[in-house]
Amino acid sequence: MKEQKKIMIIGAGILQVPAIVKAKDMGLEVIAIDVDPHAPGFKFSDESILLSTIDVENVLKKALEIKPEAVMTLASDMPIRTVAAVGEKCNLKTISFETALNATDKGRMRRKLKEMNVPVPNFYIVSNMEQYLQVIKRFRGKFIVKPADSSGSRGIVLVDDLNNINEAFSYAKKHSKSGEILVEEYMVGPEVSVETLTIEGKTHVIAITDKLTTGAPHFVEMGHSIPSQLPSRVQNEIKKVAIAATEAIGIEVGPSHTEIIITPEGPKIVELGARLGGDNITTHLVPLATGIDMVECSLRLALGEDVILPQKQSKASAIRYLKADVGILKSVNYPNTLKQKKGVKEIVLTKNLGDRITKIGSSNDRIGYIISQGDSSKEAIEICEEAIDSMKIKII
């Protein structure tokens, strides 16, 4: 009997579950790493190892014992460094550790992109209040303050009032592991993400995703839809910038998720992740809209297999996150027929009854979502919105 190939998946949280399940479906032996003994992905994996996903040294030791044929993470930023370190040490198909640093440290990323003439906002990197107070004098009007190494919209704030300058610095600093803060130009325009796969050094754009956020001050994502409704000329510019950014960071294999704002001067990079996009974009929206399973493609690339992308289907998909008042979540009700409604693919609550619901300051504060499929982005979005309108969320 042919021996199963082993794959280490760094992370077993809810975002990693689709990769773990898909790897099992592909007949792989899955070793999942997570510090949380109750991580949902452990239920599906063959072996569960209790280690932090960013404990590079100890994960490396385990990898040298296990000798996996592949290693990956799905939609988390900092574990990318662990993936790259294991890849380099075990001679696996991953990005290099230097590329992982470029993709997870926003300061390094900005410098590298600027050096390679990829359009980015004006930015400064500071580590203390004195530096911060000096650089903010160079901005006229609004500017963004955010940690150099955080994700999930944590620590991001728009400064549009001189009274909240100190508060913005403290908020970003609290979420920065390295202590470095990025202070940058406030970009105005539509925001998209670009889902790509790099195969043998060539980057392929799989989808451009239109994004809906809460706006100022924290810009938490509240919806996504594929395909983009932007004009084709603008989409072509977006594709060029995303491919240039992927090359500049040094990605030669695997997925990327690039966030871009289309400013009056053209598309500029918000940030780039050397990983699959979160928020159900690559696990649900991309396959529903294009027919391409980016999770399976990424697993096959990690295994060193040849990947030939199929012809895209022409459907559309959307996700919309539920909004709720502040208080205790008492009940969520919707018609029994909603799950059978044409186009509704998933209805998910991410909070439990009795949980305290707060203002949305990061993606962790959202209470649930609806995923839909339609013949156009407009139709998919309408299906989501109609579904949400039929829901009754009681907060006390």
Description:
By secondary structure, the chain is an alpha+beta fold. The chain folds into four domains: 89 residues, Rossmann fold, CATH 3.40.50.20; 64 residues, Dna Ligase, domain 1, CATH 3.30.1490.20; 127 residues, D-amino Acid Aminotransferase, Chain A, domain 1 (2-Layer Sandwich); 75 residues, no CATH class. Helices cover 30% and strands 28% of the residues. The chain has eleven helices and 19 strands. The strands form four sheets. An eight-stranded antiparallel β-sheet has the order 13-12-9-10-11-14-18-16, with helices on both faces. It has a four-stranded parallel β-sheet with strand order 3-2-1-4, sandwiched between helices. A hairpin with a 2-residue loop joins strand 9 and strand 10. Helix 2 runs parallel beside helix 3 and helix 3 runs antiparallel to helix 4. The longest helix has 18 residues. The protein starts with 5 loop residues before the first strand and ends with a strand.
Q: Key features?
A:
11 helices, Rossmann fold, 28% strand, 396 residues, alpha+beta, D-amino Acid Aminotransferase, Chain A, domain 1, 4 domains, Dna Ligase, domain 1
- Over all CA atoms, what is the radius of gyration? 21 Å
The percent of residues in helical segments reads: 25-40%
Annotation, overall tally of beta strands: 19
Q: Ends: how far apart?
A: 59 Å
Overall outline: globular
Strand portion: 25-35%
The secondary-structure class comes to alpha+beta
